[in-house]
Specification:
Length: 259
């Protein structure tokens, strides 16, 4: 698996490409290693030596998890130029097309409708190139995962008390659409859905929401070490300031949880 990930990442930076890579009509061509080196030799060195040579090989997160985190961050930040390459890598690393579909849908709620819509063309191109058809993406509706009635009732009551008089529409949609529908869709495991959410929050600097969602992620099976490794990975894809802004919140959550 690591060999596949390294090989795919190698292609992301256009190593040894004799021609400009093919891209969808109207899209910007992917940069080759020579392109990068001609402008920023140090950037190319960091890409090869650190991102490819170390980051994606670290054991703290599986290649599949790193792909989910990276795809979520790129969509959250509306950075779709490299998205086709990372979607291909995600599939090579075991992320199913149905899960990619759910990641995009989930991020519409956590990073905005337009960001999700902008991810559709590159994802559609990847699906077409891989002969991924409608039978491999989840239906619009269907059976759902079981709801934790007690936990959801407590959450809904707390939000209603805080904001029900100020923004009843937000409270209503949060309960009816977000937590009683979106989060119960079976096409993406709760742990992966939490991983996507936390990654998006870090990527967009929304630190106020991290405490709740990181606790939820760890309730859903994310390990302490994985939560810490997530920040190290996202530093490269969202910038050091976003990672360090989230670090105190992540530290606080981890330290307060029982071992």
């Amino acid at each position: 698996m690591r060999v596949l990930a390294a090989a795919a990442l190698f292609c992301l930076f256009g190593q040894a490409m004799a021609q400009t890579p093919t891209t969808p009509e109207g899209a910007k061509p992917m940069l080759t290693s020579q392109d990068i080196r001609a402008v920023a030799p140090a950037l190319e060195r960091y890409a090869q030596g650190i991102v490819l040579g170390d980051l994606w090989k670290r054991p703290g997160l599986s290649p599949r998890d790193r792909s989910i985190v990276t795809v979520a961050a790129l969509i959250a930040r509306d950075q779709t130029v490299e998205l086709p390459n990372y979607l291909n890598l995600a599939i090579d690393n075991g992320v199913k097309p149905a899960e990619i579909s759910e990641i995009i849908t989930h991020l519409a709620f956590y990073t905005g409708w337009a960001n999700a819509m902008n991810a559709i063309p590159p994802a559609r191109e990847v699906f077409a190139n891989r002969n991924i058809g409608a039978d491999q993406v989840p239906p619009a509706s269907g059976p759902q995962l079981p709801l934790d009635e007690a936990a959801e009732s407590q959450r809904a009551s707390r939000v209603e008390q805080q904001f029900g008089q100020i923004t009843p529409s937000l409270v209503q949609y949060t309960t009816d659409v977000l937590f009683r529908d979106l989060w119960l869709r079976p096409g993406l495991a709760p742990r992966d859905r939490s991983l996507v959410t936390v990654s998006a929050l870090v990527a967009t600097g929304q630190v106020a929401q991290i405490t709740y969602h990181l606790n939820r992620a760890m309730d859903n099976g994310l390990k302490r070490e994985e939560a810490g490794e997530l920040l190290g990975h996202l530093a490269f894809y969202t910038g050091w300031p976003n990672a360090f802004s989230a670090a105190p919140v992540v530290k606080d959550v981890i330290e307060k949880r029982p071992r």
